[in-house]
Amino acid sequence: MKSILLAGGSGTRLWPLSRSTYPKQFVKFPGMEYTLFQMVYTRCLALSKPEEIYVVSNSAYEALLYAQIEELGIKVYPHTILLEPIARNTLPAIYYGVKEIQKGGDDVVAVFPSDHLIRDPESFTSQIKKAIPQTGKNIITFGITPTSPETAYGYIKGGKPLSDGAFMVDQFKEKPNLALAQEYVKNGYFWNSGMFMFRTDLFSEQVRLHAPEVYEAFASGTVEESFQKTPKISIDYGVLEKTDCIAVLPLQIVWNDLGSFTAFDCEYEQFKDSQGNIRFHDDLFIDSSKNLVYSDKHKITAVIGLDNIVIVDQSDALLVCAKDAAQQVKGVVDHLKSLNDKRSESSDFGYFPWGTQQTLSSDISWVFQKFTITKACALAYEKHDTYSDQWTVVHGSVSLSGKDTDCLYKAGDSFTLEQKGLVTFDILEPETELLVLRMNSEPICIYGKEER
User: Fold this and answer.
1) Beta-strand (E) ranges in 95-235?
2) Pairing of strands 278-279, 292-294
3) Three-class SS state of 136
4) Computed over its alpha carbons, how large is the radius of gyration of the chain?
5) Any bridge partners for residue 318, and if so which?
6) Which range, 14-18, 108-112, 121-125, has the best average confidence (pLDDT)?
7) pLDDT at 452
8) Is 63 part of any domain?
9) Pick the residue with more confidence: 421 or 370?
10) pLDDT number for residue 306
11) Is 54 domain-assigned?
């Protein structure tokens, strides 16, 4: 059995925590040992071997994918990392994975989004495996038994009963208003989880019948050519709502797609005070209830006389909104993009295979950065100007080599780079930390050369 993880989403409804350069599936949220992507990948290990777990994602996330899988202590098989040259929604992404799997023969495949939070992985995988016998005749979609009338989810109406608790799908329903959602829950509809299982040969035939443009686009040519030719279409519109061989298997699990900040309410009971306020650090609430504050641990946020408010404070962005307006956060991102504001896509924090870099502070004539290198490796810095760069080794040790430079620096040592040219930072210890004050407003960029 093979697995396909969809890891290309940008998580715009969790801005500014989630940016398109560092989206929510790769963020390690408070109280969680792993990121959402790592948790989904780990769940797939109960269904497939590492070399059988295919990840379809944005090409910009390649470094993140390798780093997060390796952080789990798992070898990355390059043939399983499938990078989309352009985003074309879920059907082309899934079919790309299917075509790669079919190179080794047809098989049963489970498809999972990479940003779902499921608290009982053992129960989850045992229920998922129950769908395997149903894949001989049907594509299986997994439904979630609703716990409340949610307007943020699509719904599925079950029809004719099948074995093992499954049903033929009678109808798919779009995200409803509250009144409709209440009616759907009352009538026993399921939430549409966006998780699927099928045989690759059956799925390919349904794509051929109902989405021939996608089928033909991937029939020949390079990956780039296929994505250029295929339409932008979801699996729901392209296949599931058209085919007559679609069944739903309800899952009895606690499930959350963390689709907006309101989803934090049921996941962070342990961080709530007696008035239902969620805080992760030393924040203060006076005459306030049911608020969410997500801020830097070194900063105190005081909330007075407010209820049902979301406050997310990052170094370069501050979000304040009513909880019932949390679904509109995407509009902020769209507006910033229309202004070509980089804060819609990136923050002062960057994640790389070798570690992280962060802009701590800046002005029109200087920038102060921190580099944390998680493993022994060689990094390169190409200096194109003669502005002064003042470096300090906070932790670890670094061997520096380049034009007029060949020295070993340990924790507490400082050095200055002024001349143009290529400099190699040979990082000798894991978790080495460097600070640099650059007398220019343009941040420094370093890049990996090779692992030691």
Assistant:
1) 108-113, 117-118, 139-144, 155-161, 167-173, 190-199
2) parallel
3) helix
4) 24
5) 313
6) 108-112
7) 36
8) yes
9) 370
10) 97
11) yes
